[in-house]
Amino acid sequence: MTPPDAVLFDCDGVVVDSEGPTFALFLQDLAAHGLPMSLERFEAEFLGGTVEMVAARARAAGARLPGDWVADFYRRMYAMLAEGVPLIEGVTGALDRLDRAGIPYAMGSNGSLEKMEITLGQHGLPGRFKAVLSGQEMGAPKPAPDVYLAAARACGARPEACVVIEDSASGARAGLAAGMRVMGFAAHGPDTVTARQLKALGVPLFHRMADLPELLGL
């Protein structure tokens, strides 16, 4: 691959390893409100959305969520993540390689800025990115391309010269809609629900963040 002009990262599951405990909290809450489901179903139907999207889809599927559930879930999720969340293995080394190559990078997530300040801030990462952007707070969450187009502008790069690193189908669709190359990070192998969704979009997969620099042509 010809090295890109900029690399645009999703946050959860790509840079910070926050999805496991967050998904467990979602599943616990949905079951308690009348919608038990497997992790596989949750990933297939809800991964990559905002908490507001999860609430709307869950209610449509029969969950009896109280009116203040979204705000309450955010409060509890932030408190849980503030207790500590690890980085994806190998991501710091990948960022170091991008720095040495002089390639800028930014973050485009559907998560809130407050959430990213909590998770990234534990590791001193926000200042390393040209921008840390929230599609949710822009009013255009993924799969809308807006957050990645804004991230490209922050890096001073043309969309077609950017590579997006994503772990969800909705995020991959956002990158593709922005006219960018998309690479799918499938940390748990090629046979998960989300990996199959990414492959169905024609997105090439990789499984170790330490491999990213070589895959980018660095």
Would you write up a description of this structure?
- This protein is α/β, with parallel strands linked by helices and 218 residues long.
- It has two domains: 6-17 and 86-215, Rossmann fold (3-Layer(aba) Sandwich), CATH 3.40.50; 19-82, DNA polymerase, domain 1.
- Helices cover 46% and strands 11% of the residues.
- It has eleven helices and six strands.
- It has helices spanning 19-32, 39-46, 51-60, 69-82, 91-101, 113-121, 135-138, 146-155, 169-177, 193-200, 212-215, and strands spanning 6-9, 105-109, 132-134, 162-166, 181-185, 205-206.
- Strands 3-2-1-4-5-6 form a six-stranded parallel β-sheet.
- α6 (113-121) links the parallel β2 and β3 (132-134).
- The relative contact order is 0.18.
- The model has no long low-confidence stretch (mean pLDDT 95).
List the helices and strands and how they pair.
Blueprint: E1 6-9, H1 19-32, H2 39-46, H3 51-60, H4 69-82, H5 91-101, E2 105-109, H6 113-121, E3 132-134, H7 135-138, H8 146-155, E4 162-166, H9 169-177, E5 181-185, H10 193-200, E6 205-206, H11 212-215
Helix pairs in contact: 1-4
